[in-house]
Amino acid sequence: MQEIKNQAQALVDKYNDQLAAFGIRVALSKKYFESAVPTRSTYSSDAAVSLLNHIDAHFDRKREEKKYKHERNKYHCLVLSVLPIDKKAVHRDHCKDYAFVLRKLERAHIGDEPQRVVYEEHKILKKIEKRLQKTLKKAQKAGIMSACKNTFLDVLRYCTLQSYAYKKRIHGKDRLFWDMIVIASVVLLAILLVLFLNMIGNAP
Length: 204
Known about the structure:
α1 (2-19) runs parallel beside α3. The protein is of the alpha+beta class. It is built from six helices and six strands. The longest helix has 28 residues, at 175-202. The termini are far apart. A hairpin with an 8-residue loop joins β3 and β4.
């Protein structure tokens, strides 16, 4: 894994020479983190189905405890952080991160068999260079703030993609704050969609 980090660093160094003219630098770091495996959802509007789901979840926990010893999801990533050279221009907590998973050990629910995935290094390097190219173009067109500072879409990316589970703070606030905002937004959109469909259905 050190070899791909060295190759990625060479790409970062190459683009940093060009980004410096716009007051921007990209920092490369290696991240390893673990996350808890969720329990399978047991919700159902049908009471009988819900009971069966609870029974399945109970046996899932038994199988998991016996076979997989509470194995957690595990991720190895390379992370690009887009930062201003002048640290006062944009606070570090507000700067963009881009994570690229190198390998992972993952399962969707407790009771599932852990699946090991290793990604091809040349494809990861290609994605990293593509991201560096996009960052350079954005810096050329719009400057430091656009290239470095998080937008709501970045926050959404951090909250919804497992590759960003290492981030405990997002855009200067605790991760839980943004998780609640995203959940509330999704619920609101679902309510508005239902109301809209009802209006269409009741239209003469």
